[in-house]
């Protein structure tokens, strides 16, 4: 029987991403704090439609805004590791990355009473050490890679990539990859960011993004007997009024098309069960 899973995921960064970029003046801080308002709107929408989702929450958010983090837990949503300081792993040494990873998990354990099963890196930029560290620390799934769109796969370690030479693929691990895409992330579509070096224009029409996001699901439904699609949102981005209307329209449309909404840990378990049945 055809079955098409939808994972709504929320990177609850609040101010951590701006701090990691060195943008700590009052305006970017207030911009991040909008995520506290957006989170309440999202939780109300998810409750209205009886949807369980996954929230990737940096340790900085948990420790800076504990009441907001607890509201997500109390609503029954999965909490996954999104680093402590929201610094991309590729910018850290192995020792720094491991310390940040462990510190983030410890914050989640204090919040939820259990270790996180999933991980998503800040800025989706893994280091050469990330997969090894996730396996070492008992994570079950990862969601920062883009090697597929609707079908989970096993993350590899120790690829050899050198300029001018063929790529040598490393061995697969037990870590399940639940792939993502910038096209299914609200941030590049909607956020205007200006720095001395770059401009991210953002500010696209929500209607256009809604059509793209809907069509990606419809393609999966048409061409795949089973699949998972992951949408990535940030409460300070998607939480704006017209975008909340867009998000609810997306939910309503996908429900009418037969989608099954679930947390990422549940999608992972279903993938593993299918894998076992296939032998």
Kindly describe this structure:
The chain is built from 11 helices and 11 strands. It is α/β, with parallel strands linked by helices. The chain has one domain: Glycoside hydrolase/deacetylase (TIM Barrel, Alpha-Beta Barrel). The strands form 3 sheets. Strands 1, 2, 3, 10 and 11 form a 5-stranded parallel β-sheet that branches. The protein has a 4-stranded mixed β-sheet with strand order 4-5-7-6, sandwiched between helices. A two-stranded antiparallel ribbon has the order 8-9. It is globular, with a radius of gyration of 18 Å. The protein starts with a strand and ends with a helix. The model has no long low-confidence stretch (mean pLDDT 96). One of its GO terms (biological process) is carbohydrate metabolic process. Is involved in generating a small heat-stable compound (Nod), an acylated oligomer of N-acetylglucosamine, that stimulates mitosis in various plant protoplasts. Belongs to the polysaccharide deacetylase family.
CATH C-level = Alpha Beta
Total number of helical segments? 11
Q: Which runs of at least 5 residues are low in confidence (pLDDT < 50)?
A: none
Q: How would a textbook summarize the main sheet? A: 5 strands, parallel
Beta strand %: 15-25%
Domain tally: 1
> What is the terminal separation in angstroms?
18 Å
| Strand/helix succession | EHHEHHEHEHEEEHEEHEHHEH
CATH topology: TIM Barrel
The overall average pLDDT, rounded, is: 96
CATH architecture: Alpha-Beta Barrel
> Helix content range of the residues, please?
40-55%
Number of DSSP strands?
11
Mass-distribution shape: globular
CATH superfamily: Glycoside hydrolase/deacetylase
Helix-and-strand structural type: alpha/beta
Using only CA atoms, what is the Rg?
Answer: 18 Å
Domain NodB homology: 26-262
Family: Belongs to the polysaccharide deacetylase family.
Protein name: Chitooligosaccharide deacetylase
GO molecular function: hydrolase activity, acting on carbon-nitrogen (but not peptide) bonds
């Amino acid at each position: 029987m055809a079955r098409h899973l939808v994972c709504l995921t929320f990177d609850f960064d609040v101010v951590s991403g701006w701090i990691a970029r060195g943008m700590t003046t009052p305006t970017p801080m207030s911009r991040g704090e909008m995520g506290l308002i957006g989170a309440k709107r999202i939780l109300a929408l998810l409750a209205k439609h009886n949807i369980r989702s996954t929230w990737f929450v940096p340790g900085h958010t948990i420790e800076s805004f504990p009441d907001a983090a607890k509201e997500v837990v109390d609503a029954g949503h999965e909490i996954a590791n999104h680093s402590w300081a929201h610094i991309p792993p590729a910018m850290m040494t192995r020792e720094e990355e491991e310390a940040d990873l462990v510190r983030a998990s410890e914050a989640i354990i204090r919040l939820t009473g259990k270790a996180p099963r999933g991980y998503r890196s800040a800025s989706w930029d893994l280091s050469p050490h990330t997969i090894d560290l996730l396996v070492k620390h008992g994570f079950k799934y990862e969601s920062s890679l883009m090697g597929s769109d609707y079908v989970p796969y096993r993350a590899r370690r120790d690829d050899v990539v050198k300029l001018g030479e063929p790529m040598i693929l490393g061995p697969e691990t037990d870590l399940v990859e639940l792939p993502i895409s910038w096209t299914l992330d609200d941030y590049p579509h909607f956020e205007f960011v200006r720095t001395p070096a770059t401009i991210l224009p953002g500010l696209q029409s929500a209607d256009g993004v809604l059509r793209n996001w809907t069509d990606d699901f419809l393609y999966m439904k048409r061409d795949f007997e089973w699949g998972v699609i992951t949408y990535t949102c940030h409460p300070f981005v998607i939480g704006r009024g017209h975008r909340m209307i867009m998000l609810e329209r997306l939910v309503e449309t996908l429900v009418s098309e037969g989608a099954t909404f679930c947390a990422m840990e549940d999608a992972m378990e279903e993938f593993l069960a299918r894998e076992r049945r296939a032998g």
